[in-house]
């Protein structure tokens, strides 16, 4: 008997970090920003009657603001519903070869899901024993390349030359650099987009700009790349960005001072927290993100994870090859990290 079930696009979905209902939880599991978005959002007056109209399909207000901020042309900016939407559109638009796309074995765990759902062949290139990306692995024939810089969940950053070598070696592929965490101490490869027409840089408002709830992400690249992305977007859903997101997102870009001050706070909290983790016997990878990836020399990561959860502190743990000994811990406020440190002192020193 034939069944409609024979014709389904089956896929193993991405599993996002938990969003607990309990508001007393210290939430260090999804790399959200502990500080609110810029106060400029309070100055926005939304005319609710305007919501009867479709939003601007071109998202011009936000695109123009971002172009001005980054000193590029509006034709070089594509905006989407979070960088997840942007990257998903990129997979659909640029990864249509029979050759496999390349990304690291330990990386953002959505890449293999998009490859699966769009039936794109892929090869996961093994990070070295210190969790570094091996440049030469990305010099073989491929159908496209994507990785985050800094990488997630390791937090490890590579420099501009490293990425330029890969982009230069792959004129027949689009290379996507996912800069979700670049604002926390990395140097962007954005200046390279005028030199290489196969490089696309993706950013998000969810982490450094503290607006995960609005769902805003964007890509920057050669205007031809952006045109092809828009063609696909207009073939799927013309109105991906809703009116409030366009308005609120545009409103905060000018508030550079607040933006820088929250980044500085998160970076200094991170550096202090890393020192404390090391004192407690953790091995901590060098992070340039708003999270750290750490394993304890004697206490099992799952035990730490479960004990913290009981105490209402949520971090992230994957029962996956190579990384099951590690916890990914988002950098919260100093107060939140102090609470975590005191819990870790109990957990890790009691069982030593
Ligand atoms: C958080 C994250 C994203 C997705 O962010 P959005 O909220 O969809 O903008 C993309 N890539 C990496 C590496 C991330 O960590």
From TrEMBL:
One of its GO terms (molecular function) is pyridoxal phosphate binding. Transmembrane segments: none annotated. Its EC number is 2.6.1.9. InterPro entries: Aminotrans_II_pyridoxalP_BS, Aminotransferase_I/II_large, HisP_aminotrans, PyrdxlP-dep_Trfase, PyrdxlP-dep_Trfase_major, PyrdxlP-dep_Trfase_small. Residues 1-24 are annotated as: Disordered. It is an enzyme of class 2 (transferase). Its cofactor is pyridoxal 5'-phosphate. The keyword Transferase applies. Residues 24-342 form the Aminotransferase class I/classII large domain. GO terms for biological process: L-histidine biosynthetic process. Pathway: Amino-acid biosynthesis; L-histidine biosynthesis; L-histidine from 5-phospho-alpha-D-ribose 1-diphosphate: step 7/9. The modification N6-(pyridoxal phosphate)lysine is found at residue 207. Belongs to the class-II pyridoxal-phosphate-dependent aminotransferase family. Histidinol-phosphate aminotransferase subfamily. Homodimer. This is Histidinol-phosphate aminotransferase. It comes from Eubacterium ruminantium. The lineage of its organism: Bacteria, Bacillati, Bacillota, Clostridia, Eubacteriales.
């Amino acid at each position: 008997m034939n069944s409609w079930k024979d014709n389904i696009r089956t896929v193993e979905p991405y599993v996002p970090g938990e969003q607990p209902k309990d508001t007393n939880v210290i939430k260090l599991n999804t790399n959200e920003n502990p500080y609110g978005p810029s106060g400029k959002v309070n100055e926005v007056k939304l005319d609710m009657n305007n919501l009867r109209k479709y939003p601007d399909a071109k998202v011009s207000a936000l695109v123009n603001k971002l172009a001005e901020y980054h000193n590029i042309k509006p034709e070089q900016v594509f905006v989407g519903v979070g960088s997840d939407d942007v990257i998903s559109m990129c997979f659909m638009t640029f990864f249509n070869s029979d050759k496999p796309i390349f990304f690291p074995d330990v990386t953002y765990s959505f890449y293999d899901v998009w490859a699966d759902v769009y039936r794109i062949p892929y090869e996961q290139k093994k990070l070295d024993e210190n969790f570094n990306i091996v440049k030469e692995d990305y010099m073989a024939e491929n159908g496209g390349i994507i990785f985050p810089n800094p990488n997630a969940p390791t937090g490890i950053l590579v420099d501009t030359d490293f990425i330029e070598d890969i982009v230069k070696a792959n004129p027949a592929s689009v290379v996507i650099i996912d800069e979700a965490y670049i604002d926390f101490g990395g140097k962007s490869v954005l200046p390279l987009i005028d030199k290489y027409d196969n490089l696309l840089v993706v950013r998000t408002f969810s982490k450094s700009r503290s607006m995960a709830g609005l769902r805003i992400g964007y890509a920057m690249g050669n205007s031809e790349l952006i045109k092809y992305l828009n063609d696909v977007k207009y073939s799927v859903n013309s109105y991906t960005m809703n009116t409030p997101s366009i308005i609120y997102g545009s409103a905060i870009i000018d508030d550079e001072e607040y933006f820088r001050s929250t980044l500085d706070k998160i970076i200094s909290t991170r550096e202090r927290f890393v020192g404390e983790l090391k004192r407690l016997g953790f091995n901590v990878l060098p992070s340039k993100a708003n999270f750290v990836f750490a394993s304890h020399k004697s206490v099992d990561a799952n035990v730490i994870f479960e004990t913290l959860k009981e105490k209402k502190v949520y971090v992230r743990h994957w029962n996956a090859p190579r990384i099951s000994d590690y916890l990914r811990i988002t950098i919260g406020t100093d107060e939140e990290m102090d609470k975590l440190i005191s819990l870790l002192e109990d957990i890790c020193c009691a069982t030593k």
